Amino acid sequence: MNVEIVREPGDKRAPDIVDDLCTTDACAIKRGQNYLDENGSGVKEYDLDVAPLDAMPAPGDLVGIQDSSLGQAFEGKVLGYMMVVSAMTDTAPLVVETTLQIERRMADE
Amino acid sequence: MSTVTNTIPIVYNINGLIARTVNVRYGINLRVRQDNTIRYDIIEYDRVSQSVSLLYNIIDKAVVQHDSTSSVQVGGVAIAAETVTIEAEEGSYCISCEVVLLKKNDWLLCTVGSTLSITINGMEYGFVIDSPGRGRKFNKTGYTVRARSKTSELDFPTAEAVSFTNASTTANTLCASLCSACGIALDWRILDWSLLAGVVVAEGDAPLNIVRKIAAAAGAVLQSTIDGETLIVQYKHQGGTATRIFTDELNILRWVETQYKGSGFNSVRISDRSIVSEDDSAYIYIELDDVRNGGQSSFNITDTIYLRVYSSEPYTMQVTSGTITRIAVDEVRLANGDIILFDGEVYPSVSKPIDTVGDVIWYGNDLGAVSKVVASEVSAELAGPETLGIAKTAYNVKHDVWRLVPPPEVTGEYHIYVKSSQTGG
Asked: Which residues 246-275 of chain B have a CB within 8 Å of chain A?
């Protein structure tokens, strides 16, 4: 098995990947696509504190972000999240702080 | 044995060169180049951070109203928690949490291996307690509990070590059996592919390590469901469409943005080791002999041109006009040291087929002796999946030398085509 994944213009080749377990063309294509997704364009990372959620996006999920200050909307991948619940006593109001870490690929810039 | 063919167009007054071809121009500057070796450029691996923090006019936290609810249970018994922190990230296959407790009696229930259930706004998380801890100072004792998803039981110390060599199977089947043996369900969200007998060898490994290696072969990562019972195998970059929208006008309370430069790669070759050995053991490669040509990259009509031919097998040479004669056989020459990056277990390549490896100078991490794997590929003694090193490696090359004499009737623009073909061995 020997597959080369090329995206236009294909002028900057990454170091070869050799993996005993990558034994079929289909597997190699997926490996290559994910590699180029990861190592191709630049990225912007966002740490966003958001209002409490009833369903948390999982790492790997795509979410939409609207940036009204720049008039932009884009999609990003969830890299992770942290949720902190505090003041969990009978007398104090519950506070839920949720931080999402988002990765945005900058292939279009 | 298959035949490998390489050709050299000798071109007069024509520009343009690609790897493994040599264009020779008479009367015009000639440039011979190989593939750019930018893969070895350390700059490509230096993640340059251009950090900017932008705080826009986003909504005030006080404006957001949300009636949150939560509960914490250990082994089905409700306990009182002061704070709960839950974290999940792409780089970790399981979700983790830390709970600060208010009461000693609640903390005493939190023994290692107990189940911890946390419900926040209807989301039901499940954990297994790793580490109950306690800190005491004057007039106050703090109780904390750390826990992870049940999927953590695929790893040491809970998991039993596995040692086996696989029979013919598929990636999904093998991973499902490893998970099942640990009481973990598997959600396989990527393609399934065949694994020939003997390609997976475990020697005292944690089941998690085997599953992780198999998933990585297809560019996938491991995650856990929030109840912790199921291991998810998914592509690192799944694509698809966003199903949830966040906006700075409604539900984003703080926004910090950082930009990183990418490596910019737009092609990559994927191989399995056995096939690489077979394919790359045969090579044929031609270049101008810069020494005999006096460093010339520009030739006159009457000049003789010298070429080097590197070939792993017997070969023949053909020209469309003029004469070509072999004047040296198996000439050994010390090549200039190449800068080579060793990133993980990948075999990097030097710029020419290697005869023997010479001196190696490591810059920083020393990964030990460097040896030839096949053709122009090398390996480092201590290279592993997580290692990173860069070295200047000298090596000897072995090649034949051919002399090309153009025909006497050459005038003006003229083309000569040189073809080398391996004949097997």
From this structure: 246-275
Residue B245 to residue A66, Cβ atoms within 8 A = yes
Token pair for B389? 């090193």
Question: What is the rounded distance in angstroms from the CA atom of residue B288 to the CA atom of residue B23?
Answer: 9
Our CA angle for B342, B348, B352, nearest 5°, is 135
What span, in angstroms and rounded, lies between the C-alpha atoms of B307 and B207? 54
Q: Is B405 helix (H, G, I), strand (E, B) or coil?
A: strand
Q: Say yes or no: B124 contacts chain A, CB-CB below 8 A.
A: no
| Interface ipTM > 0.85 | yes
Contact B265 A40 (CB under 8 A): yes
The residue type of A109 is E
**Rounded Cα–Cα distance for residues B54 and A5 (Å):** 36
Give the separation between CA B134 and CA B147, rounded to whole angstroms: 15
Q: At residue B64, what is the residue type?
A: V
pLDDT digits (tens, 9 = 90+) for B110-142: 999 999 999 998 999 999 999 888 887 777 788
Burial B146-165 (b: 16+ CB within 10 A, else e): bbbbbbbbbbeeebeebeee
- Whole-model pTM: value is 0.63
